[in-house]
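Audit log entry. Action: structure prediction of a protein-small molecule complex. Ligand: zinc ion. The ligand was supplied as SMILES and no pocket hint was given, so placement is left entirely to the predictor. Protonation state taken as written. Sequence taken verbatim from the request; no trimming, no tag removal. Recorded inputs:
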Amino acid sequence: MYYVPDDTERCGYYECKECGSRFLDIKIAPSLVCPYCGEEPDMEIGPDDEMPVIKEDAKLIKMLSDKEEVEKYDKLLSLAVTGGDFDWI
Ligand SMILES: [Zn+2]
């Protein structure tokens, strides 16, 4: 398994509105901070500036609640990441 631990039976399938990344995460929430583009700390920020807003751009598309489905999505997504060009949604 690429995104979630082996034998995960329940996870969320997310797509980032900002960079288009798709991924699985065992955390399930309506939206998450994107692991690809969402955690860039702003080094320019000074002590008097406002805290950077945490942008939860990755939206839950689908909840996977079955081990076989989790495995299938994990495999397809990891293939897409490692070079396969899937248009399977
Ligand atoms: Zn992103």
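Audit: result stored. The pocket of zinc ion is lined by residues 16, 18-19, 21, 34, 36-38, 57 (CB under 6 Å). The mean pLDDT is 87.
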